[in-house]
Amino acid sequence: MKLIIGVFIIVLGIMLLSGISIGGILAGVFLNFFKIWPLIIIMIGLGILSEVRGFKWVKYINWVVSAFFVLFLIFAPADISFRKMNNEEFILKTNEIYSHYNFEANLPVANITFETHSDSPDIKVYTRTRREFGGVEMFANKIIINYEPFSTPIFFYGEQYIISFPEQKTFSVVINCAVSNTKFNLNNNVIRNIELNSAIVNFRLDINNFISPVKIVTNAAISNLEIKLPEGTTYYFNNTAPLRSLSGDSKLIQSSSNSQVSITNSSAIISSNIKSKK
After folding, report:
1. Which residues, in sequence order, are CB contacts of 213 under 8 Å at separation 6+?
2. Cα separation of 29 and 32, whole Å?
3. What are phi and psi of 186, to 5 degrees?
4. What residues are paired with 105 via a beta bridge?
5. What is the DSSP letter of 19?
6. Which of 228, 275, 252, 200 is nearest to 24 (CA)?
7. Tens of pLDDT along 72-90?
8. Taking the complete model, does pTM exceed 0.85, yes or no?
9. Residue ranges in the chain assigned as alpha helix (H)
10. What is the DSSP letter of 134?
11. Three-class secondary structure of residue 275 per DSSP
12. pLDDT tens digits for 19-57?
């Protein structure tokens, strides 16, 4: 275990010296830990065997496994999975009496990508899970995903979702989870509110045009925010993190009144990069 901690600290230090954001690193580490944690049990077993006479050589195998564990935590893509998942695609029919819908996800780990489309007024859902319809349900104007512990144990979690919102409606999104890995690829923004309540937040937002302004609230221990906005977009960033790494763009306009993007961050550690796109 000392070897794991030592290698992890060394690799982490090298990456920080290279200018890579600590928020992004730690978010990826936590996401990958849920996929590969059984290796810890294997390493404990190898450590016990290495103390037995005639099996001293096992410690070298343990070193290799430990190095792989650390490197996987830091460098493996967040969307990789070792478990067999079912891919499903389905539609949630919207009702013309509702112009605004609320989306809520209550999951241990949230791997969710949000998109928009204009070809129909319905919500398109793509899932990669072990559950039928990915556990997605709709009641009136509320879409909800809840965690089901007996169908997907938390320590083997790897469910993934793509939610495509119609541009004919507006939406609010709330994510409640331990680790949040969310991407918002929005051609025309129809999301009015985004609230992320997580221990670790890895948040990416890419907007081409605004149908509606958006308010973003993050409540987390560690946050990593990557935001791309059209040139000339007005935004406001209210940040209370004591440890911060912030970067902005001169082609965007900071304004506390009538801003198209309003961000309120409550984190202990934050890394944010807000930049413009042509």
Report:
1. 189, 192, 259, 260, 261, 262
2. 5
3. -115, 115
4. 145, 175
5. T
6. 200
7. 776 666 555 445 567 889 9
8. no
9. 2-17, 22-36, 38-49, 58-75
10. G
11. strand
12. 555 556 666 676 677 667 777 777 778 777 778 777 777
